[in-house]
Protein backbone atom coordinates (compact mmCIF):
# COMPACT_ATOMS: atom_id res chain seq x y z
CA UNK A 1 0.00 0.00 0.00
CA UNK A 2 0.92 3.66 -0.28
CA UNK A 3 1.07 4.89 3.30
CA UNK A 4 0.28 8.53 2.55
CA UNK A 5 -1.36 9.69 -0.68
CA UNK A 6 -2.00 13.31 -1.66
CA UNK A 7 -4.46 13.96 -4.49
CA UNK A 8 -5.22 17.26 -6.22
CA UNK A 9 -8.55 16.82 -8.00
CA UNK A 10 -9.34 19.99 -9.96
CA UNK A 11 -11.27 21.92 -11.15
CA UNK A 12 -9.54 22.41 -14.48
CA UNK A 13 -8.02 25.90 -14.95
CA UNK A 14 -8.46 26.64 -11.26
CA UNK A 15 -4.78 26.67 -10.37
CA UNK A 16 -3.85 23.00 -10.10
CA UNK A 17 -0.75 23.45 -12.27
CA UNK A 18 0.33 26.37 -10.08
CA UNK A 19 -0.06 24.16 -7.00
CA UNK A 20 1.93 21.39 -8.67
CA UNK A 21 4.77 23.77 -9.52
CA UNK A 22 5.00 24.91 -5.88
CA UNK A 23 4.94 21.40 -4.39
CA UNK A 24 6.96 19.33 -6.86
CA UNK A 25 10.38 20.21 -5.45
CA UNK A 26 9.52 20.15 -1.76
CA UNK A 27 11.49 17.57 0.24
CA UNK A 28 8.55 15.60 1.68
CA UNK A 29 6.40 14.99 -1.44
CA UNK A 30 7.17 12.51 -4.22
CA UNK A 31 5.83 13.06 -7.75
CA UNK A 32 6.10 10.56 -10.56
CA UNK A 33 7.57 11.66 -13.93
CA UNK A 34 4.01 11.66 -15.29
CA UNK A 35 2.23 14.55 -13.53
CA UNK A 36 -1.33 13.35 -14.21
CA UNK A 37 -1.77 9.59 -14.13
CA UNK A 38 -5.61 9.61 -14.02
CA UNK A 39 -5.59 5.99 -12.83
CA UNK A 40 -8.63 6.03 -10.54
CA UNK A 41 -10.76 7.81 -13.16
CA UNK A 42 -9.71 5.33 -15.83
CA UNK A 43 -10.46 2.42 -13.54
CA UNK A 44 -14.13 3.46 -13.28
CA UNK A 45 -14.50 4.43 -16.95
CA UNK A 46 -14.48 8.25 -16.75
CA UNK A 47 -11.55 8.23 -19.18
CA UNK A 48 -9.84 5.50 -21.18
CA UNK A 49 -6.47 7.02 -22.04
CA UNK A 50 -4.53 4.43 -20.00
CA UNK A 51 -5.02 1.68 -22.55
CA UNK A 52 -1.89 -0.33 -23.37
CA UNK A 53 -1.27 1.36 -26.73
CA UNK A 54 -1.27 4.86 -25.27
CA UNK A 55 1.12 3.84 -22.52
CA UNK A 56 3.44 2.20 -25.06
CA UNK A 57 3.41 5.40 -27.12
CA UNK A 58 4.49 7.41 -24.08
CA UNK A 59 7.34 4.97 -23.47
CA UNK A 60 8.28 5.28 -27.14
CA UNK A 61 8.53 9.08 -26.87
CA UNK A 62 10.77 8.76 -23.81
CA UNK A 63 13.02 6.24 -25.59
CA UNK A 64 13.27 8.55 -28.60
CA UNK A 65 14.17 11.48 -26.36
CA UNK A 66 17.01 9.65 -24.61
CA UNK A 67 17.96 6.96 -27.12
CA UNK A 68 20.35 9.13 -29.13
CA UNK A 69 22.19 10.28 -26.02
CA UNK A 70 25.59 9.14 -24.87
CA UNK A 71 25.91 6.65 -21.99
CA UNK A 72 26.39 9.39 -19.41
CA UNK A 73 23.22 11.20 -20.51
CA UNK A 74 21.23 7.95 -20.44
CA UNK A 75 22.62 7.13 -17.01
CA UNK A 76 21.56 10.52 -15.69
CA UNK A 77 17.99 9.83 -16.82
CA UNK A 78 17.80 6.10 -16.14
CA UNK A 79 15.19 6.48 -13.38
CA UNK A 80 12.74 8.13 -15.75
CA UNK A 81 13.38 5.52 -18.45
CA UNK A 82 12.79 2.70 -15.97
CA UNK A 83 9.65 4.41 -14.65
CA UNK A 84 8.08 4.65 -18.10
CA UNK A 85 9.02 1.05 -18.89
CA UNK A 86 7.16 -0.01 -15.74
CA UNK A 87 4.29 2.34 -16.64
CA UNK A 88 3.93 0.76 -20.10
CA UNK A 89 4.67 -2.89 -19.32
CA UNK A 90 1.42 -4.60 -18.22
CA UNK A 91 -1.45 -4.84 -20.67
CA UNK A 92 -4.03 -4.16 -17.96
CA UNK A 93 -3.87 -1.53 -15.23
CA UNK A 94 -4.62 -2.50 -11.63
CA UNK A 95 -4.19 -1.24 -8.08
CA UNK A 96 -0.90 -3.15 -7.92
CA UNK A 97 0.26 -1.43 -11.11
CA UNK A 98 -0.63 1.98 -9.67
CA UNK A 99 1.24 1.27 -6.43
CA UNK A 100 4.30 0.18 -8.42
CA UNK A 101 4.47 3.61 -10.06
CA UNK A 102 5.58 5.02 -6.71
CA UNK A 103 8.23 2.38 -6.03
CA UNK A 104 11.05 4.85 -6.83
CA UNK A 105 10.02 7.10 -3.93
CA UNK A 106 13.27 7.77 -2.04
CA UNK A 107 11.57 7.87 1.36
CA UNK A 108 9.49 11.04 1.01
CA UNK A 109 6.48 11.15 3.34
CA UNK A 110 3.72 11.62 0.75
CA UNK A 111 3.15 10.34 -2.77
CA UNK A 112 1.26 12.82 -4.95
CA UNK A 113 -1.06 12.45 -7.93
CA UNK A 114 -2.85 15.30 -9.74
CA UNK A 115 -5.99 14.70 -11.80
CA UNK A 116 -8.93 17.02 -12.48
CA UNK A 117 -10.95 13.88 -13.31
CA UNK A 118 -10.98 12.49 -9.77
CA UNK A 119 -13.56 15.02 -8.57
CA UNK A 120 -16.05 13.36 -10.92
CA UNK A 121 -15.73 9.92 -9.31
CA UNK A 122 -18.51 8.29 -7.35
CA UNK A 123 -18.06 5.98 -4.35
CA UNK A 124 -16.68 3.11 -6.43
CA UNK A 125 -13.73 5.22 -7.54
CA UNK A 126 -13.01 6.39 -4.04
CA UNK A 127 -13.17 2.82 -2.71
CA UNK A 128 -10.16 2.10 -4.94
CA UNK A 129 -8.37 5.10 -3.46
CA UNK A 130 -8.99 3.96 0.12
CA UNK A 131 -7.90 0.41 -0.73
CA UNK A 132 -4.56 1.74 -1.91
CA UNK A 133 -3.84 4.18 0.92
CA UNK A 134 -4.93 4.35 4.58
CA UNK A 135 -4.13 8.06 4.73
CA UNK A 136 -5.55 10.15 1.90
CA UNK A 137 -5.48 13.94 1.66
CA UNK A 138 -7.46 15.59 -1.14
CA UNK A 139 -7.47 19.22 -2.33
CA UNK A 140 -10.29 20.44 -4.56
CA UNK A 141 -9.46 23.81 -6.14
CA UNK A 142 -12.25 26.16 -7.19
CA UNK A 143 -12.29 29.41 -9.14
CA UNK A 144 -14.97 31.96 -9.97
CA UNK A 145 -17.11 29.89 -12.37
CA UNK A 146 -17.22 32.55 -15.09
CA UNK A 147 -13.49 33.34 -15.16
CA UNK A 148 -12.65 29.62 -14.95
CA UNK A 149 -14.95 28.81 -17.86
CA UNK A 150 -13.43 31.53 -20.05
CA UNK A 151 -9.92 30.36 -19.19
CA UNK A 152 -10.91 26.77 -19.96
CA UNK A 153 -12.31 27.79 -23.36
CA UNK A 154 -9.10 29.62 -24.28
CA UNK A 155 -7.01 26.71 -23.03
CA UNK A 156 -9.00 24.27 -25.14
CA UNK A 157 -8.50 26.41 -28.23
CA UNK A 158 -4.78 26.50 -27.47
CA UNK A 159 -4.78 22.73 -26.99
CA UNK A 160 -6.30 22.12 -30.44
CA UNK A 161 -3.88 24.56 -32.06
CA UNK A 162 -6.42 27.37 -32.52
CA UNK A 163 -5.42 29.79 -29.77
CA UNK A 164 -5.16 32.76 -32.13
CA UNK A 165 -8.60 31.91 -33.52
CA UNK A 166 -10.36 31.67 -30.15
CA UNK A 167 -12.65 34.56 -31.07
CA UNK A 168 -12.73 34.06 -34.83
CA UNK A 169 -14.09 30.53 -34.26
CA UNK A 170 -17.34 32.28 -33.43
CA UNK A 171 -20.14 32.32 -30.88
CA UNK A 172 -21.65 29.04 -32.11
CA UNK A 173 -18.37 27.23 -31.55
CA UNK A 174 -18.24 28.65 -28.02
CA UNK A 175 -21.83 27.57 -27.27
CA UNK A 176 -21.28 24.09 -28.71
CA UNK A 177 -18.19 23.56 -26.58
CA UNK A 178 -20.03 24.55 -23.40
CA UNK A 179 -22.65 21.92 -24.21
CA UNK A 180 -20.07 19.13 -24.37
CA UNK A 181 -20.40 16.98 -21.21
CA UNK A 182 -16.61 16.54 -20.89
CA UNK A 183 -16.22 20.32 -20.91
CA UNK A 184 -19.18 21.31 -18.74
CA UNK A 185 -18.53 18.76 -15.97
CA UNK A 186 -15.58 20.91 -14.85
CA UNK A 187 -18.05 23.70 -14.03
CA UNK A 188 -20.30 21.52 -11.87
CA UNK A 189 -18.71 22.39 -8.53
CA UNK A 190 -21.67 21.48 -6.33
CA UNK A 191 -22.23 18.13 -8.02
CA UNK A 192 -18.55 17.24 -7.75
CA UNK A 193 -18.31 18.48 -4.16
CA UNK A 194 -21.21 16.25 -3.13
CA UNK A 195 -19.43 13.27 -4.67
CA UNK A 196 -16.26 14.12 -2.78
CA UNK A 197 -17.96 14.55 0.58
CA UNK A 198 -19.83 11.26 0.11
CA UNK A 199 -16.51 9.39 0.24
CA UNK A 200 -14.14 11.65 2.16
CA UNK A 201 -14.21 12.84 5.76
CA UNK A 202 -13.76 16.45 6.77
CA UNK A 203 -10.09 15.97 7.63
CA UNK A 204 -9.44 14.30 4.26
CA UNK A 205 -10.83 17.07 2.02
CA UNK A 206 -9.75 20.69 1.63
CA UNK A 207 -11.31 23.35 -0.57
CA UNK A 208 -8.80 25.76 -2.03
CA UNK A 209 -9.76 28.91 -3.93
CA UNK A 210 -7.83 30.24 -6.90
CA UNK A 211 -8.56 33.81 -5.84
CA UNK A 212 -7.05 33.25 -2.38
CA UNK A 213 -3.73 31.85 -3.51
CA UNK A 214 -3.43 34.50 -6.22
CA UNK A 215 -3.84 37.13 -3.52
CA UNK A 216 -1.78 35.45 -0.76
CA UNK A 217 0.25 32.62 -2.32
CA UNK A 218 2.66 31.99 0.56
CA UNK A 219 -0.03 31.93 3.23
CA UNK A 220 -2.27 29.60 1.27
CA UNK A 221 0.52 27.25 0.26
CA UNK A 222 1.35 26.92 3.95
CA UNK A 223 -2.31 26.12 4.60
CA UNK A 224 -2.08 23.26 2.11
CA UNK A 225 1.04 21.86 3.77
CA UNK A 226 -0.56 22.12 7.21
CA UNK A 227 -3.62 20.26 5.91
CA UNK A 228 -1.45 17.50 4.48
CA UNK A 229 0.49 17.32 7.73
CA UNK A 230 3.87 18.45 6.45
CA UNK A 231 6.31 21.04 7.68
CA UNK A 232 6.35 24.42 5.99
CA UNK A 233 10.08 24.30 5.30
CA UNK A 234 11.02 25.02 1.70
CA UNK A 235 8.17 27.47 1.12
CA UNK A 236 9.47 30.76 -0.22
CA UNK A 237 7.77 33.74 -1.79
CA UNK A 238 10.12 33.78 -4.80
CA UNK A 239 8.15 32.81 -7.87
CA UNK A 240 4.87 32.08 -6.11
CA UNK A 241 3.11 34.98 -7.81
CA UNK A 242 4.14 33.76 -11.27
CA UNK A 243 1.33 32.62 -13.55
CA UNK A 244 1.62 29.03 -14.73
CA UNK A 245 0.29 27.67 -18.04
CA UNK A 246 -1.28 31.03 -19.03
CA UNK A 247 -3.50 31.65 -22.04
CA UNK A 248 -3.71 34.78 -24.18
CA UNK A 249 -5.62 37.69 -22.71
CA UNK A 250 -8.59 37.96 -25.09
CA UNK A 251 -11.51 40.10 -23.97
CA UNK A 252 -14.65 38.09 -23.21
CA UNK A 253 -17.24 39.25 -25.82
CA UNK A 254 -20.38 40.62 -24.17
CA UNK A 255 -22.76 38.22 -25.94
CA UNK A 256 -20.59 35.23 -25.01
CA UNK A 257 -20.29 36.43 -21.40
CA UNK A 258 -24.06 36.86 -21.04
CA UNK A 259 -24.70 33.40 -22.43
CA UNK A 260 -22.12 31.84 -20.10
CA UNK A 261 -23.51 33.66 -17.07
CA UNK A 262 -27.00 32.42 -17.82
CA UNK A 263 -25.77 28.82 -18.01
CA UNK A 264 -23.68 29.26 -14.86
CA UNK A 265 -26.40 30.83 -12.71
CA UNK A 266 -27.49 27.46 -11.22
CA UNK A 267 -23.83 26.70 -10.43
CA UNK A 268 -23.45 29.93 -8.47
CA UNK A 269 -26.70 29.29 -6.61
CA UNK A 270 -25.84 25.69 -5.72
CA UNK A 271 -22.42 26.72 -4.44
CA UNK A 272 -24.00 29.40 -2.27
CA UNK A 273 -26.51 26.92 -0.88
CA UNK A 274 -23.73 24.46 -0.04
CA UNK A 275 -21.57 27.16 1.50
CA UNK A 276 -18.69 26.62 -0.91
CA UNK A 277 -18.93 29.90 -2.85
CA UNK A 278 -16.13 32.40 -2.36
CA UNK A 279 -16.95 35.99 -1.46
CA UNK A 280 -14.48 36.98 -4.18
CA UNK A 281 -16.66 35.57 -6.98
CA UNK A 282 -18.26 38.53 -8.72
CA UNK A 283 -20.43 37.18 -11.57
CA UNK A 284 -19.10 40.01 -13.70
Automatic annotation (TrEMBL):
GO molecular function, one term: sulfotransferase activity
One Pfam family this sequence matches: Sulfotransfer_3
Keyword Transferase belongs to the record: yes
Superkingdom of origin organism: Bacteria
This protein's record includes keyword Cell membrane: no
Keywords of the record: Transferase
PANTHER family: BIFUNCTIONAL HEPARAN SULFATE N-DEACETYLASE_N-SULFOTRANSFERASE, HEPARAN SULFATE SULFOTRANSFERASE
The protein's name: Sulfotransferase
Organism: Halomonas halmophila
Amino acid sequence: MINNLFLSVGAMKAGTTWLYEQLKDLPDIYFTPEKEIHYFANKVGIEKQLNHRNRILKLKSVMERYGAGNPKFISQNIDEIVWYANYAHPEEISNEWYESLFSQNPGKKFCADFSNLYCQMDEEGWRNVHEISPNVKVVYTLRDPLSRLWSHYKFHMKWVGQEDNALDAGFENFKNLLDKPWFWCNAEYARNYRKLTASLSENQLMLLYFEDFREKPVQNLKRVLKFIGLEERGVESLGLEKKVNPTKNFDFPDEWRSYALEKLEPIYEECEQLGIASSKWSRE
